[in-house]
């Protein structure tokens, strides 16, 4: 199984609707829609670390993909995208994890810019290999899914 190193880690509780103050307000399918909010939060964090936009890709295994397919506005038949995100199904990813990242930077082997630490205006400079690796990790977020019984999904 793959565990991708990243800086940002958030949780999402698969059974969170059971603990809501308005417990009768949600069904499991309704609650699953809140996962896109968590994905968008990860994208916003990535955006704040990069001047080139937020996340563009989400990567998960086929078990978690079943939740994503239940999203109200997800339509695999059209383009395989979830809103603005490319969806990658990878069964080498653990059953309780979604990775959200900026593939245009993270997966580009020629990308060599890092934030200039001395400039508050967020300019970028050419970095060394260690700085580039550290910066790319900051553009990956991990959502850990709590209470997701493999039998229930």
Brief synopsis:
With 153 residues, the chain is of the alpha/beta class.
Helix run count? 5
Radius of gyration from the alpha-carbon trace, in angstroms: 17 Å
Low-confidence stretches: none
Strand fraction equals 15-25%
Which sheet architecture does the biggest sheet show? 6 strands, mixed
Order of helices and strands: EHHEHEEEHEEHE
N-C termini distance:
19 Å
> What's the β-strand tally?
8
Helix content: 25-40%
Tell me the strand order in the biggest sheet.
1-8-5-2-4-3
- What is the average per-residue confidence, as pLDDT, rounded to a whole number? 86
Content-based structural category: alpha/beta
3D shape: elongated
Keywords:
153 residues; alpha/beta; two-stranded antiparallel sheet; 5 helices
Account of the 3D structure:
By secondary structure, the protein is of the alpha/beta class. It contains five helices and eight strands. Strands 1-8-5-2-4-3 form a six-stranded mixed sheet. A two-stranded antiparallel ribbon has the order 6-7. Strand 3 and strand 4 form a beta hairpin. The protein is elongated. The protein starts with 7 loop residues before the first strand and ends in a 7-residue tail after the last strand.
Topology:
Elements: E1 8-13, H1 28-32, H2 34-49, E2 57-60, H3 62-69, E3 81-82, E4 85-89, E5 97-101, H4 103-106, E6 113-115, E7 124-126, H5 129-138, E8 140-146
Parallel strand pairs: 1-8, 2-4
Antiparallel strand pairs: 2-5, 3-4, 5-8, 6-7
């Amino acid at each position: 199984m793959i565990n991708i190193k990243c800086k940002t880690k958030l949780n999402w509780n698969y059974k969170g609707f059971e603990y809501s103050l308005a417990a009768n307000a949600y069904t499991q399918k309704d609650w699953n829609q809140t996962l896109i909010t968590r994905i968008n939060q990860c994208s916003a964090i990535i955006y704040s670390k990069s001047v080139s936009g937020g996340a563009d890709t989400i990567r998960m295994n086929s078990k978690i993909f079943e939740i994503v397919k239940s999203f109200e506005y997800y339509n695999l038949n059209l383009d395989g995208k979830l809103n603005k995100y490319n969806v990658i199904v990878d069964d080498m990813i653990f059953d309780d994890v979604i990775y959200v990242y900026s593939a245009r930077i993270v997966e580009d082997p020629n990308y060599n810019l890092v934030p200039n630490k001395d400039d508050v205006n967020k300019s970028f400079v050419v970095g060394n290999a260690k700085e580039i690796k550290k910066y790319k990790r900051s553009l990956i977020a991990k959502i850990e899914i709590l209470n997701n019984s493999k039998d229930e999904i």
